[in-house]
Prior knowledge:
This protein is α+β, with helices and mostly antiparallel strands and 518 residues long. It has helices at 10-21, 26-40, 111-122, 127-130, 132-140, 146-154, 156-159, 163-169, 185-197, 199-215, 225-230, 257-270, 281-299, 302-307, 309-322, 421-433, 439-444, 464-468, and strands spanning 3-7, 50-56, 63-68, 86-91, 96-101, 142-143, 181-182, 234-236, 239-243, 246-250, 337-344, 349-355, 363-364, 369-370, 401-405, 410-414, 448-451, 454-458, 478-482, 493-497, 503-506, 514-517.
Amino acid sequence: MRGVIAAGSTTTAAAGAEILASGGNAVDAAVGACFATSAGEPTLTSLAGGGVMIHRDGRTGEVTICDFFADAPRARPLDVPGHDFVGVDLDFGPTTQRFHIGRGAAAVPGVIPGLCAALDRWGSMPLAEVVKPACRALREGVRVDEFQGFACSMLASILTHTAGARAVFATQGRPLAAGDVFRSPALADTLEAMAKHGWEDFYRDVVGRAILAEFAPEHGGLITRADLDGYRVAMRAPLQVRYGKATLLTNPPPGAGGTMIAVMLRLLDEANARRHPIESREYARELCCAMAVADEARLEGVAALGARFEHWRARHATLVCSGRPSAPTGPGGPASTTHVSVLDEAGNAAAITFSFGEGNGHVLAGTGIMMNNLMGEEDLHPNGFGNSPAGTRLSTMMSPSLLVHEDGAITVLGTGGANRIRTALVQTIALLADRGYDPDDAVAAPRLHYENGVLKAELFAHETAGKRADLASIPAHGFVPFPERNLYFGGVHIVQRAADGTLSGAGDPRRGGTFRRA
């Protein structure tokens, strides 16, 4: 076996598996799979968004975070006449959320620089080979599955917002639906030209020109040439936290998600939450209180999450004893994010989470790439829209992670889901590290999310459904039951190498996930 991959669609996973089978390493496969999301997951992300990769060198064991999330532009909305910033409501079923789109919702993207920089540093194949599976899928077309059809319906107001978007996502006079075939030869042309001419020159001269032609301040956007020229991919040491008999390595500051996960895991570890059955009300209360404390801590800034842990430990104990989690004011978050996890036979690992928010309704002319709306995502701007420090990296929840087990096993995982990223990963990690779940069972288990005093929980399933019904008595302000698995709770895609070298994994069905061996 050359390796394994878990991703958000069969097209995405097949691209990575093809690259592994042809001799590529984990980074080749992960980058190629990310390009292929343009065909297999066109509603979940784009090449004009932002992301984070965690990489493990199979030879040395060194772990590095490659941060290519989006930057806040230098221009301020109040300084841009005709700032184009439009609110839209999206329906998840049991709950709705408001997002913002338009030219002024675009942040400075980093996906192409990030993926290409990672390939340059750790890959073994040229870019022209890595993009081949994606280009083939974009030209031949991919049949829209049930999940993508649902996502197209949910995002219809964005995917049809402009003529350029309709030309990509509504070619039959309506948004794409399950059973339709999605093609984007323009994007295939873009990828092939970028590989032929060199990604740095092409990105600056072609993609950058297209960005400025529509998203500069004179057009109602915020992005300038200085923003594009000043963007840098950042290589960082991972954040590490011990949890039970395993060590988690994840995204450090300026990202907020990794530190919030670390705080929640430490609180659960020290409270010995594992003493409660996984389906019990007591365990759910421990989880909700940890989630509430992490949200409170975040309001003080990312640095406060770890620096004042003794305070947060005491706060958690108080909330657990009171029986009622707190209800801090906090934002919602986007649905459209995806994740890829890869392990190869040499022990190299790569996990990439990336997003374009929900997209901002505008496609870069001549490229087939929809622009992001990351300046319109409430969860990325906890101090309010327009108040993020100009020209700096936005603080993302993305937390692609490695879990190193005491017996030498390695688990590679991550998820989309914005403010649910942190809670989905905490619950999955606890199942893997505490309860001995395998990847399939850890991904399949019901999830909950507590925020703003409201508990949202999946109540599907088997013998736990009745016991979980009493969760309605936990929150202070509301309870929203989900009768089955829902994309709201993320899509955790896992690959794992056991201590004996056996490779396994699982893709999350909540977001069309699939697992492939190569």
